[in-house]
Amino acid sequence: MPLILCLCLSTLAGLIIAVVDTRISGFWFSAWAAVLLCSLPGLGIWLGNIIRKWMKPDAVYGSAGAVIKARLFWTVMPQCIGWFIGFMAAMGTLGIQA
């Protein structure tokens, strides 16, 4: 479930950025930006999910707060890190600096 949600939000964010960002102008550049901003962060999310499944611990012991933090981290953070890396790769490919 988190993978599908992350991919949908990534695609939505990529399309919004491709349309709203004033540094992206022209039809073909906007189309190329939409493709890159939807595919590269999505690829990062997918790779982050693979890493999450591979490295996620089977059990976490500790206080209730530590267990909740660990579960939240392993639920979304590898995908978020993958999205960020993919987003920066897409922006670098487009030649846009933040």
SSE order and pairing:
Blueprint: H1 2-20, H2 27-55, H3 64-94
Can I get a quick summary?
By secondary structure, the chain is mainly alpha-helical. 81% of the residues lie in helices and 0% in strands.
What does this entry look like structurally?
The chain is built from three helices and no strands. By secondary structure, the protein is mostly helical. The chain has one domain. α1 (2-20) runs antiparallel to α2 (27-55) and α2 runs antiparallel to α3 (64-94). The mean pLDDT is 89.
Structural descriptors:
98 residues; mainly alpha; elongated
- Shape verdict: elongated
Number of helices: 3
Structurally, the number of domains stands at 1
Query: Approximately what portion of the residues adopt beta-strand conformation?
Result: under 5%
Low-confidence stretches: none
Share of helical residues: over 70%
